[in-house]
Structures are given as structure tokens and as C-alpha cells.
Amino acid sequence: MGSILEQLINGLRSGSIYALIALGYTMVYGIAKMINFAHGDIIMVGAYALYVLVALLNVPAIAAVVLTIIICGVLGIVIEKVAYKPLRKAPALSVLITAIGMSFFLQSVALLIFKPNPIAFKSIINVNSVRIGGITISGISLVTFIITFICMIGLTYFINKTKTGSAMKALSEDKAAAELMGINVNRTISITFAIGSALAAVAGILFVCQYQSIQPTLGALPGIKAFVAAVLGGIGSIPGAMIGGLALGLIESISKAYISSQLSDAIVFGVLVVVLLVKPSGLLGKNRIEKV
Amino acid sequence: MKKSLKKVLSLGLVSVMTASLFAGCGKKDSGSDAFIIGGLGPLSGKAASYGVSVKQGANIAVEKINAEGGVKVGDKTIQLKLNFVDDEASPDVAVSAYNTVMDNGAQAILGAVTSDAHMAITDLTNDDGILTITPSASIAGATAYPNIFRLCFTDPVQGITMAKYAIETLGHKKIAVIYNNSDPYSTGVKDAFNAEVAKLGGEIVASEAFEKDAVDFSTQLTKIKGSGAEIIFVPTYYTEASYIATQAAELSVGLPFIGSDGWDGILAQVVDAKVLEGSVFLSPFVATDENPDVQSFVEAYQKEYKAVPDQFAADGYDVVYLIKAALEKAGTTDSKDLVAAMTQIKVDGLTGSVSFDEDGEPNKGAKFVKIENGKYVAITVE
């Protein structure tokens, strides 16, 4: 019994990180109608930024976290301005390929600067494990849950209650109409990329504190998993990304624990296939007829 | 008329330049009396620690031999030269790295360091008939060709040895295993281990897999925690093993670990060495060994590289001495004679006294290492 609960906690923890990353995918898709494949690598940039600030420059932990988030947010804006904005009128495929290219670019730059060898990094989150009954919850898991929860609440509030949030929603509904209503499209897109990348930075920070090791490809696998989570939840839908991320983490953990650790990825993707067959737009995605 | 003159002139110039280019090439290696050892191993990437250690250990041996006057081959004394190329532990890169060292005039191959990369070049070395000694590719089939020898134990032998250690020496019956199911080294050790455990009357209560690049092992560890296991066997490379040990401590799994020889170098990968306290793994070499040869090697290595040598460094060192012994026995630098000489030599190396059988496998005893107080300590096991 205790073991089932612990497995659920494990699943929720990796699911939380997937959800944070998936939010970035889904927000960018909702507004710019593109899959930003470089998104996973923002996690990696966040991890290295934290490492440089904390381990090399001895910046205090809190300041380093804030700076890391700012660096990634700014990087998100720059990537959009440099790589995606000039292609806004281009076919979707061109933008997709540019995004993949951007992903390789970021990885290669990290390879050049930091070399391919993994770097051991001491976690900056030092919270003791908690024992409830027979269950142990590690400190980093607790912190991950709390931070993910705060991010989700904050984002939901931002989207629904602020003017910029409304602008984002309007833009994702109908870009041309939003523009006619006086919404600044460029500014809104920039803010979307900034928020998505900031969330990826948070995921990156939690990731390195969890696994305590950094390498240039660390963003690739969580990036792909989070993309699957975003599709599972319905890409373009913010609650969908949250649910998709958590669901993916849980399915992964439960299938590893109770079915087979060798087949867990096959099961995860099997579930995705089944969901998409039943509901092609994902769990919470809107069935919208594409205008031609 | 003028035009064609220009053409002839430029053609002449081009041919002179090309010729000089080739002339430069040919001169590079001939003339010197060095025997070139081509080294292959990862100098970058996840397994970089292995390749760097092998290269540095081999370098120490080459410098020592050369400083002592070189190798007596027949009636000539020749110097050794190491040409070590990065294979990134990848099969594709290993092939081009092999071609590079061959282009550089390699006369014997030290490598490859990792199993996957080694398997990619076995065909090529056989086609060239060149003497190939791998310090550490432990996969079954690594010495399938007559020209290939290995210094380390095979994967199956490692699995069997560790199973005996867990059951007969430590007296555990219920054992959990975590292995990488996308890595032939890991699955090879695991298969032999599981079979031997069953033979000795033990029980594998959990056999958990993970895939390449996995960083999260909490699910597998939680499952093992509830499985009644008394010990966890982790036949993987040090990167994964360090994640596993760290996460096991976070989850308060509280079980001892045993590992395969891929664990060597693990202490540098963990933030807190306490998570590894008491772990035991197979390693043919420990720097704290009192053997004078080992101590003088450790001293030279520390002086040169400011680091304590691990088993891979010792393997690299020993392979150079094996090549030296083969050269002296054969009396020529001819690949065919060197290969034939290998089964007739016996070398007292840093990793133990070793001789070879016809299959290219080593005859030597197992050595264990325990992590105590954040340090590697050699232990003797009956």
C-alpha cells in the first residue's frame, strides 16, 4: 500500500516537471501556431545558467534562481525575434525546421562551452525528507509540488485576470480580429515566449536539483516527454498541458512499477495513441475546424 | 598560344604542388624507429573518464619504457609511440577513429575501451590482421577474432563473480537488479548474474530495466524497496550508478549496493560520497594497493596528471606492457608474429598476473573494491 502511494508521488514529481515544460509548448502553439522544438533546450540553458551562477560565480541561491529565470525569459524572446518572427508568414514546415535547428544550435553551443562531460552539481534546495506513516517523500519532491502548484495557479490567474492574458486568449482565438481590436501582436507573442521559457527555466532548476548532474543533452528527453504531454492534454489548452503532464508522469511511473519497467515507454505512447484515436484533439483540446 | 602556355604552366605548378604534398605525407612516419600504438577510447562524452584514464595510463607506460631505453625487438631497440584518438564510445565514431590511427601508421591497437565501440572495429582489425588488445571491452564476443585479446574479465564472468560474492560471501538470498536494457554490457552482466543466482539457490526479487539516457530511477527503486530485497546489484556505468545511489538515499531505500567494473570513477560523479558508503564493485586495480609497482605507477601518474589513477589507467598501462612483451617475444614488429606471441607471454601487471588462452581471454583472478569513508579500498574475498 505504502509502495503504491510512493510510486504515485514519484509519478507526480516527474509529471510536475513535464507539466511545467508542456505549458511552454502549449502556450506557444496556442498563440504562434508553431511547435517550438527548442523549448526542451531552454531547460538545459536554465540548468547551466544556474550552475554558472551558483558554482562558478558564487551568486546567492535566491538571486541565482531569479537571474536564471530572467536569462531564460530573455533568451525565449530573442529566439522568437531572431529565428521565428521573420518566418511568421512562411509555411508551417519552415518554422518547424527552424525550431529543430534552433534546438541543435543551443545544444551545440552548450557542448562547445561546457564540453560533453556531465558536471556534478550540488542541489541548492536543501529540504529534508518527510516521513508520513511508512512513506518517505523527499524534500525535492515536496518543493517540486509546491513550486509547480504556485506556477500553475499564477499562470491561470495571469491568463484569465490580466489584460495581457486576455490579449493572449484573443490572439489564440483569432489573430486577425485581435489585431483589428488594437492588440499589439508582437508584444503579446514576446510575452508568451518569455513566460514559456521562464517556466522551462523553473523546470530546469528543479531538474538539476533533483538529479544533481548537468550535460548538454539533458533537455532533450524531458522536452520530448513534455511535448507528448501537451499533445495528450490537447495542444493549445493550458489546463490540458497541466493535466497531460501529470497524467504522463503517473502513467509512466505506474506502468514501470506494476507492468514492466522495460515496456514503460511503449505503454506511455500506447496510451497517447488510444487517446488520440478516441479524441483526436487531446483530452482538453478544442475541436476546431481549420479555416482555409 | 599565350593561353595554352599559361595552361601548361599552371598544370605544371599544380603537379609540383601536389607532388610536394604527397612527399610530405610519406616522410611523416618512415625514418623514425618508433613502434606506433594506436589507441581508441572515449575522450569526450558520458564515458570520457574511461578513455582519458586509459590514455593517461598508457602514456605513463610508454614514457617509462622509452626512458628506460625502449623495447628490444630482435637486434634492434625501438621506442614506443602512442597515437590516441577519441571514439566518443560510439560505434560510428570508433570506425573513423580506427581509420585515423591506421592512417597515422598504427602497428598495434590499444582499444577500444568500451564494448559497443570495440565491437564496431573488430571486423576491421581482423581484415588488417593487426594485434588488438582491448583494456576493458568486457562484452562476450569481443575476442572472436584470433588477432584480438582482452585484459579485463568478460561480462558473464563479472556477473557470475558478483553472484557468488552476494550469495556465498555476503550470505544474501533476495537480490534486486537494476540494469540498462539498451546496453549490451549491462544486460550481459545481468543475464549471467541472474542465472548464477538461481543456480546458487538465491532469488531475484526484482529485475528492473531502464533505458539509455534515463536519469530518474525512483520508480524502480521504490519497487525494489517493497520487494524484500537485501541487496541491489547495479551492472551499469558510473553515470547511471551515481544517479541510482543518490536517488536511493533520497528515498531511504537503505540497501547496500554491489556493482560491476563500470562503477570505477563513480566517486567523482556524486555530490555526496555518503550515498555510496559500503558499496562493493569489481575492479582489478586499487590505487591504495601496497604493491611497489602500483605505488610507483600511482606516483608517476599523480605527478603527471594531478589525479589518482583508476582501473582503466592501470589497464591502459598494462596493455602497453603486454605489447612490449609481445614485441620482445616475437622479435619482430610484424603483426602476425605479434599475435602468435601473445599466447606465450605472461606479464605481472598492475591489474594482476595475466596470460592469455587461444580465444584471447585473460587468465587472472578477481579483485574487489569497497567504498569506505568516501575512498576506494581493496578487499580480499575468499
Describe this structure in words.
The complex is a heterodimer of chains A (292) and B (382). Chain A is mainly α and 292 residues long. Helices cover 73% and strands 3% of the residues of chain A. Chain A has eleven helices and four strands. Chain A has helices spanning 2-32, 39-56, 61-84, 92-114, 139-161, 163-173, 175-180, 185-211, 220-233, 238-258, 264-278, and strands at 119-120, 130-132, 135-137, 213-214. In chain A, helix 2 packs across helix 8, helix 5 runs antiparallel to helix 8 and helix 10 (238-258) packs across helix 11 (264-278). Chain A starts with a helix and ends in a 14-residue tail after the last helix. The mean pLDDT of chain A is 89. With 382 residues, chain B is of the alpha/beta class. In chain B, the strands form three sheets. In chain B, strands 8-7-9-10-11-15-16 form a seven-stranded mixed beta sheet, with helices on both faces. In chain B, 44% of the residues lie in helices and 20% in strands. Chain B has two domains: 34-153 and 289-364, Rossmann fold, CATH 3.40.50.2300; 155-283, Rossmann fold (3-Layer(aba) Sandwich). The interface between A and B is medium-sized, with 38 and 31 residues. Chain A: GO terms for molecular function: L-isoleucine transmembrane transporter activity; L-leucine transmembrane transporter activity; L-phenylalanine transmembrane transporter activity; L-valine transmembrane transporter activity. Chain A: Pfam families: BPD_transp_2 (PF02653). Chain A: The chain crosses the membrane at residues 15-36, 48-79, 91-114, 135-159, 189-214, 226-251, 257-278. Chain A: Keywords: Amino-acid transport, Cell inner membrane, Cell membrane, Membrane, Transmembrane, Transmembrane helix, Transport.
